[in-house]
Amino acid sequence: MAGRRGALIVLEGVDRAGKSTQGRRLVDALCDAGFRAELLRCPERSTEIGKLLSSYLEKKSELEDHAVHLLFSANRWEQVPLIKEKLSQGVTLVMDRYAFSGVAYTGAKKLRSVEASARGEFGHERYEKKAFQERVLQCFQQLMRDETLNWKVIDASKSIEDVHEEIRALSEEAMESAAQRPLGELWK
Ligand code: Z5A
Ligand code: MG
After folding, report:
1. What is the DSSP letter of 97?
2. How remote is the CA of residue 16 from the centroid of ligand 2, in Å?
3. Neighbours of 164 (CB within 10 A)
4. Low-confidence stretches of the chain (pLDDT beneath 70)
5. Cα separations (Å) of 141 from 45, 58, 127, 150?
6. How many whole angstroms from 57 Cα to the centroid of ligand 1?
7. How high is the pLDDT of residue 130?
8. Ligand 1 closest atom vs CA 163
9. Whose CA is nearest to atom 3 of ligand 1?
10. How far does the centroid of ligand 2 lie from the alpha carbon of residue 19, in Å?
11. pLDDT tens string 86-99
């Protein structure tokens, strides 16, 4: 139908949940079914800001926490004109992480400074990592209380194929419902 806008489908979750795998599979399936769909990612590591983030994430450089948060935010703002243009042209965008990761990962760092020191978990790297992911999940769960955002929870422990089928079906519903609504403000 002419004039239909695209949907913004955001895949969020803790580390290694399978977001990138599912993002690629989803875009391929939607394109095969005749939809216009493209994959975007946060962070987008190819830009100058993205390169700073990539180096930080790979532990090749150190950055102050607030500065990192702002760089992740700036890295999303770099993509906003493209996101708006594509959606208004009717292209559905599948986002491999988005602003919710920005809130959840920074939120988890803040929780760490309060809780971790009290529990004496510093110095135990494996525990630290698991504990950090639990705090990230806790932050995502708080964000999911916002009912205006149409969150769907997927059990990522299922097979890649089963998770894909579930995400594909939900995405087609989301695309249909997005087409009925005008493009609002982006959550960024
Ligand atoms: N970050 C932040 O702090 N602030 C922000 O604003 C943003 C991000 C946007 C890098 O992100 C870091 O940036 C990340 C959050 C932070 N934190 N850390 N650490 P990233 O998205 O670039 O991270 P990544 O390196 O791509 O990892 P990931 O996204 O967490 O992984 P994933 O994409 O969820 O998983 P995957 O690569 O698709 O799959 C992982 C492996 O599991 C792979 O071998 C798959 O074949 C396998 N897999 C996938 N699904 C399954 C199932 N269902 N069964 C069995 N095996 C599976
Ligand atoms: Mg990934």
Report:
1. S
2. 7
3. 20
4. 1-2, 113-128
5. 27, 27, 21, 13
6. 12
7. 85
8. 53
9. 105
10. 5
11. 999 999 999 999 99
Centroid of ligand 1 to alpha carbon of 21 (angstroms): 9
Backbone angles phi, psi at 41, to 5 degrees: -135, 150
Tokens of 150: 């149409």
Ligand found nearest the CA of 42: 1
* Coil, strand or helix at 11: strand
Residue 127 CB contacts under 8 Å (≥ 6 apart), including other chains: 121
Tokens of 156: 């990522």
Render pLDDT for 148-169 as a digit per residue (tens, 0 to 9). 889 999 999 999 999 999 999 9
- One-letter amino acid of 162: D
Task: Give the global pTM.
Answer: 0.94
- Name all residues whose Cβ lies below 6 A of ligand 1: 15-21, 42-43, 57, 72, 97, 101-102, 105, 156, 159-160, 163
Number of other CB atoms surrounding residue 163 within 10 Å: 19
- Measured from the Cα of 23, ligand 1's closest atom is 38
**Which pair of tokens denotes residue 138?**
């806790």
Helices and strands in the chain, H and E counts = 7, 3
